[in-house]
């Protein structure tokens, strides 16, 4: 496991606990101009993020050698991940492609990748939702996450794969920018690639997995 992973996890959990404690104290002392419902929502978001980190950590810590791989059909797997999301925009995730496209991999690790990318697309995209398109070439399976956003500038695009880096459109969102970094590390286990493409207000993240 990457040597940076443990200090990154510790840093993010500490930051999330600070959010939970801070908002709890504001709620207890009635000092915030925000409503108790809004504060409760932010506390719940931070708590769920900690839960996600522990799930990710425990999954990455398991044996993920090629002997543990199995055929993973991408459309059903994405549909399963979609059904587990908390977002109120879940009905605005549109998944397209052949249900026969599959790669050999670890289902739990792929779920982490897809959940992180869907979460990011929903948080930072517009109300139009997210399209996920599965394609197949002679040598690769492609998964494209497409959404309409306020746009990501060139500087942000270059640093999004680094830990603790977040785009300028992330204000008000819980988290320290680990999701895409973890997704990249998992994709690399499959000798795959992850790339970003920006055209006008359309943001596309493409995963490429070799067969």
Q: Gyration radius, to the nearest Å? A: 18 Å
What is the beta-strand fraction? 15-25%
SSE ordering: HHEHEEHEEHHEE
Number of helices: 6
Structural class: alpha+beta
Query: Can you say what the CATH homologous superfamily of the largest domain is?
Result: Histidine kinase-like ATPase, C-terminal domain
The CATH class of the largest domain turns out to be Alpha Beta
Helix content: 40-55%
Low-confidence stretches: 169-176
In CATH, the topology of the largest domain is named Heat Shock Protein 90
Reported for the largest beta sheet, the result is: 5 strands, mixed
What are the main properties of this structure?
alpha+beta, 2 domains, 211 residues, single chain, five-stranded mixed sheet, globular
Q: Would you kindly provide a written description of the structure presented here, covering whatever features stand out?
A:
The chain has 211 residues and is an alpha+beta fold. The protein has 2 domains: 1-61; 67-210, Histidine kinase-like ATPase, C-terminal domain (Heat Shock Protein 90). It has 6 helices and 7 strands; from the N terminus they run H-H-E-H-E-E-H-E-E-H-H-E-E. The chain has helices at 5-29, 36-60, 74-84, 107-124, 154-159, 179-189; strands at residues 70-73, 93-96, 102-105, 125-136, 140-149, 193-199, 202-210. A 5-stranded mixed β-sheet has the order 2-4-5-7-6, with helices on one face. The chain has a two-stranded antiparallel ribbon with strand order 1-3. Strand 4 and strand 5 form a beta hairpin. 24% of the residues are buried.
